[in-house]
Write a structure and sequence with these properties.
The complex is a heterodimer.
Chain A lengths: L4 E3 L2 E4 L5 E6 L6 E7 L5 E8 L2 E4 L8 E4 L6 E5 L8 E8 L5 E2 L3 E5 L1
Chain B lengths: L4 E3 L2 E5 L4 E6 L6 E7 L5 E8 L4 E4 L2 E6 L4 E6 L8 E8 L5 E3 L3 E6 L1
Parallel strand pairs in B: 2-11
Antiparallel strand pairs in B: 1-3, 3-8, 4-5, 4-9, 6-7, 7-8, 9-10, 9-11
Classes of the chains: A mainly beta, B mainly beta.
Chain lengths: 111, 110
């Protein structure tokens, strides 16, 4: 039973480019969460999705960030026009109804 | 929003000693979880304790929860070099989202 998969593991983007981060939840899980971790800090909640629905996006910046979890395929976190401050580790977690299982993360570096 | 706060921020002990980390939070919770993160890696779930539980054990881990003081502790007994990592507590804040503390960086010296 594969765990939560994230790709890419490392992503380098120049300022102004777009970043797309993918997350495949564990088999049977229909809840996906995205968190961001800045260096030397804890994880900060960004968004909670179920299939085709955004349930809670209270942690998402109002501009440039969007997330989706389509009926088929992985969840996507999209960051448009990246800036240096977007450099961080982005973690995805999935659950069925309780405990959240985390993926290995995508480390985004904006140059 | 509430946020767990771990104490101490950093802890360095000798192999074989016990390590205790504390976490405080601000509002009512349904459960509290502890995670481990090795440098540059993802999070590993260690243990979940529900609000109606006071203590829970898992191998060398012991977690306590005091809802009256809004605090929890994680005890790692007989520490090993492989326990070197950052440890985070996380509380639920409705709608299943987790709120993490800043973490305790634990170093086990051989």
């Amino acid at each position: 039973n594969a765990g939560v998969m994230q790709n890419p593991r490392h992503l380098v983007r120049r300022r102004g480019q777009e970043a797309r981060l993918r997350c495949s939840p564990m088999k049977g899980h229909s809840h996906v969460y995205w968190y961001r971790q800045l260096p030397e800090e804890g994880l900060k909640f960004m968004v909670y999705l179920q299939k085709e629905n955004i349930i809670d996006e209270s942690g998402m910046p109002k501009e440039r960030f969007s997330a989706e979890f389509p009926k088929e395929g992985p969840s996507i976190l999209r960051i448009q026009q990246v800036v240096r401050g977007d450099s961080a580790a982005y973690f995805c977690a999935s659950s069925s109804q309780g405990e959240q299982y985390f993926g290995p993360g995508t480390r985004l570096t904006v140059t | 929003s509430q946020q767990g706060e771990e104490d101490p921020q950093a802890l360095s002990i000798q192999e074989g000693e016990n390590a205790t980390m504390n976490c405080s939070y601000k509002t009512s919770i349904n459960n509290l979880q502890w995670y481990r993160q090795n440098s540059g890696r993802g999070l590993v779930h260690l243990i979940l304790i529900r609000s109606n539980e006071r203590e829970k054990h898992s191998g060398r881990l012991r977690v306590t929860l005091d809802t009256s003081k809004k605090s929890s502790s994680l005890l790692i007994t007989a520490s090993r070099a492989a326990d070197t990592a950052s440890y985070f507590c996380a509380t639920d804040e409705g709608a299943q989202k987790l709120v993490f503390g800043q973490g305790t960086r634990l170093t086990i010296n051989p």
